[in-house]
Amino acid sequence: MATDMNIVEVILREIVKPSSPTPHHFKTHELCFIDHSVPLMYFPLLLFYSHDNSIHDSRSVGGKDQPSNDKDLEKPDIQLLRQFLAAEPESQGARISPLLLVQATFFECGGMAIGLSVLHNAMDAASLTTSLNSYIYSGKVKSKEVCVRNFKPTKIAALQCKAASESVKNPTRVEAVCALLWKSAMEASESNKGSLKPSVFCQVINLHPRTAPPLPENLVGNLIGKFPAKLE
């Protein structure tokens, strides 16, 4: 059930400035044509820390001393999650607001949510991941225990065999996993709506390490490729 009530109380807003002045030649950043083609919006990311400082992604909410999060995993409340962000992804303020907005939300259970809103024209998901990794391993974040959900290699191999067909005899690991996710999503949609509806699946690819020669890992910007698949 969607949450209409605002459960987050804002107690402080502040602008964090760099510890030293920005060099003159860094004050203006020229966007490339790919950056200009990206919709003007905030790229959202939510990280949830339980009371023991382990890190979870936006698919789990709250600390370990709270009730099970299975319901949140099955049917995440988007309106609730939006309250943990400093700005709506489609906010018109993206035209004039800072490039990065951060909101820290503290729960009664002792856990915490960190909501990041990054201007998509400035960076893509790969760039944001690089920035977060640099921050975490710089020593400013003490805990490095991260909750990650992985597919076991044996399970992926079994998926590849199951996904093989006359048209795709040797599906890659990514193709096999994406096929499973898309198939599950379509089955859930059919179960909820009573019939199979047209569906589009879009796979986004990080092109940073795929150029010749590969680009530096700390490069910031938008460099992605994508290919859609459609079921009518």
From TrEMBL:
<protein>
    <recommendedName>
        <fullName>BAHD acyltransferase At5g47980-like</fullName>
    </recommendedName>
</protein>
<dbReference type="InterPro" id="IPR023213">
    <property type="entry name" value="CAT-like_dom_sf"/>
</dbReference>
<keyword id="KW-0012">Acyltransferase</keyword>
<keyword id="KW-0808">Transferase</keyword>
<dbReference type="Pfam" id="PF02458">
    <property type="entry name" value="Transferase"/>
</dbReference>
<dbReference type="GO" id="GO:0016746">
    <property type="term" value="F:acyltransferase activity"/>
</dbReference>
<comment type="similarity">
    <text>Belongs to the plant acyltransferase family.</text>
</comment>
